[in-house]
Every structure is written in structure tokens, then in C-alpha cells.
Amino acid sequence: MKLKVYNTQYDHKEVYFFTVDEFHYYEGVETSVKWAKPHELAIRTEDSVGLRIIQRKNIREIDGRPYEYIEAGVQKAIERIIAGSRGAKYHVRVGGEGSSCTCPGFTFRGKCKHVDLLEQELNHA
After folding, report:
1. In a designed cystine with 101, which of 12, 46, 84, 106 is the match (CB 3.0 to 4.6 A)?
2. d(CA 29, CA 69)
3. What is the pLDDT of residues 73-123, one digit of tens each?
4. Read out DSSP for the chain?
5. Could you tell me the residue ranges of all domains in the chain?
6. Residue 13 and residue 7: Cα distance in Å, rounded?
7. The overall pTM is greater than 0.85
């Protein structure tokens, strides 16, 4: 089994003095260990580590095929960049653990037209 796994250090790569790759690549055999949770994958590798426990949400490919882990009972969040009325761009997130937007209106009121716009777009899709 070959895995392509997102490197969570990549989110903050600017704080490291070394190069941080976006992905790790592992090759090995899936194995069962009693301490691995359902959202984790245990894999035996031939490298110096030998056994890796990998968060399934960080796996992007298995054997070259795209992989996406969605936890049971959890709605996947949708993110978009939406332009405001004056041209500013805001990061809008809907679903998952709630909605959010980087606009000042959402910061003060906890709701905004950008979130409403994305929710409407998703409901009509």
C-alpha cells in the first residue's frame, strides 16, 4: 500500500528553518493495533520507524487513487473565497462544525451575507 499524506506542518511552513514538503509518502502494509482509533490507519513500513499511525483525514491518495475520509455523522465543511461589495475577498466556511467568515460583519454579529450567499449556492446545487 502506498500513501500520500498531507503534512500538517505545511500549514505553518514559514516558522521552520528547513524546507517543509506539502506531502509525506509512505509505503507499507496496513496492520491492526489495539490502540489505533477508527479515524487512524496503522501501517507497517520498512523505514527506521517501522510502524506509523496516520490520521485518515490527512490521507490524500492510497495506491495512486484519490482518498477522502469523512467521519461518520460529520458533515464536510465547504470553503470558498467570496468577494465583498467593495472588492475585498473573504474566506467563507459553511458546514462541518458551523459557519465562519473573515469579514468584519461576521466578527461582530456572528452572521453575514457572505455565509448566506454560500448557503444559498449550496442549497440550489
Report:
1. 106
2. 19
3. 556 778 889 998 888 999 998 876 678 999 999 888 888 999 998 888 877
4. -EEEEE-GGGGGGGG-SS---SEEEEEEEEE--TT--TTEEEEEESSSS-EEEEEGGGEEEETTEE-----TT-PPPEEEEEE-TTS-EEEEEESTT--EE-SHHHHHHS--HHHHHHHHHHHT-
5. 2-66, 78-123
6. 10
7. no
Residue with cell 457572505: 114
Residue 81 corresponds to which cell in the numbers above? 473565497
Polymer length in residues for the chain: 125
User: How far is CA 32 from each of CA 42, 53, 108, rounded to the nearest angstrom?
Assistant: 6, 10, 48
